[in-house]
């Protein structure tokens, strides 16, 4: 089922073709010269998002990512490969009391700059296009 998206990625796997999402670095945490994480602020932008809730957290992330890859690799209203932006963001949700992690996660793909004004519509109804306000993200 994922053969076509994987082939598309292989054909388009030049690091210079990956668009980094513009951000402002707020904090960088290192230990003995190794990067532990960065705290970044991203500006207001449109993202393709999918919320998944599988039995295991890792399953939710993997399935969400695969669905987004189908959208990126031509299963969209433009019929075109949209290009890779990095990073793909995973949002971990908590329960209503904010005391424990939920099984639900959101996996999100930043739409490239050229698609921000008019993003292609996903064929998969589980994927929604959202405009996010400026956002703080922890990256590792």
TrEMBL record:
SUPFAM superfamilies: Probable bacterial effector-binding domain. GO terms for molecular function: heme binding. InterPro entries: Reg_factor_effector_dom_sf (IPR011256), SOUL_heme-bd (IPR006917). Transmembrane segments: none annotated. Belongs to the HEBP family. This is HEBP2 protein. The gene is Hebp2_1.
């Amino acid at each position: 089922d994922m053969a076509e998206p994987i082939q598309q990625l292989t054909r388009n796997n030049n690091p210079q073709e990956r668009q980094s999402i513009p951000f402002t670095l707020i904090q960088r945490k290192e230990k003995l010269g190794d990067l532990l994480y960065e705290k970044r602020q991203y500006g207001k932008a449109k993202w393709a998002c999918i919320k998944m809730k599988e039995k295991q957290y890792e399953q939710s992330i993997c399935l969400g990512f695969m669905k987004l890859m189908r959208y990126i690799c031509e299963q969209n209203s433009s019929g075109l490969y949209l290009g890779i932006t990095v990073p793909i963001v995973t949002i971990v949700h908590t329960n209503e009391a904010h005391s424990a992690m939920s099984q639900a996660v959101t996996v999100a793909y930043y739409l490239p700059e050229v698609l921000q004004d008019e993003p292609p519509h996903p064929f998969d109804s589980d994927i929604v296009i959202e405009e996010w306000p400026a956002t703080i993200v922890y990256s590792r």
